[in-house]
Amino acid sequence: MTPDTVQAVLMTAPGAPLELRRLPAPRPRQGGAVLETVASEVCGTDVHLHHGRLPGVPYPIIPGHVSVGRVLETNGPLADVEGGAIATGTLVTFYDVYGTCGACWHCLVARAATRCPHRRVYGITAPASDGLLGGWAERIEILPGVRLVPLPDGLSTEDFLGGGCGLPTGFHAVERAGVAMGDTVVVQGSGPVGLNAAIFAQLSGALRVFVVGSPRARLEAARRLGAEDTLDIGEVPNLESRVQWVRDRTSGRGADVVIEASGNPAALPEGLEMLRDAGRYVVVGQYTDGGDVLVNPHRHVNRRHATVLGCWGYEFSHLHRALAMMRRHDARFRWRELVTREYALADAGQALREMESLSVVKALIRPQPGC
Ligand SMILES: [Zn+2]
Ligand SMILES: [Zn+2]
Fold it and tell me: What is the pTM of this model?
């Protein structure tokens, strides 16, 4: 029985308290589907959204970009990327992007689909007026063309959301960095993106991974996930000492690859100091505009012969391959242990506060307890 209305959390404007509302239950459009939400992640992006730190967000929105649900209803046959039929009742996630046009200069000439100006992301740039396009709700509307991804056998909702959006984002950053067998990698930042980058760096053949971040619980997670050593920036507030810490572990040269996943602009010049000559630096953590920093073009980039790369969003390919890697390597990395709390819809505001205080690594919204 489909109810007439369902509960959803609305973020109406930056700084405004979240509102729990009843909205009309969605029906699938031709070629689309409706999911019964099992769980949706809470991540740093949601905190940024609540502070209004992202430009162009069409408030009010329903937060929750990476989610898992059961297919409740479809309108026409749906298939996964290998052509397998997706029946009602299947446990799925989905590539949380719609609107990418495949026809513009960015899509066709630059082949940079994550920079397509028409691209919209569930829970971030999807206005609530367009439907239930966020996971902090009892139902999620899957628009025609949005790619459903059945969770592989053996992976649960909690396994997948323990990685959350950090899983494909960290995967993309490591791919972008071109981590090679035998590399020494420094990851700046110990949030979900940094932790997943540390995982995928190892799976790409890195010999050693070091994580620079805070707080202690996240660094403990980094060591459990295989980081050889970690540096707590709360205990070593001095930049020169942190750079020296990396040099002490790399014969004085610096790391082959440094991945910035911290979100702090000051990490950039620091990370470049941690990089060896002819090393590769990838910036993936600066998702919002945190301001300007000073970089020395001669010392940091030109003389260092550095390769410096940005990394924006992720494509379907990253989600697909990251999930396949999770399935293969879950016994080793146990992503679900990164989930430290679950919240009901009514407690979404508390979830944001606890995410902001970094007292949780990964948190879930579970709209229907027991679902
Ligand atoms: Zn386009
Ligand atoms: Zn996220």
Answer: 0.96
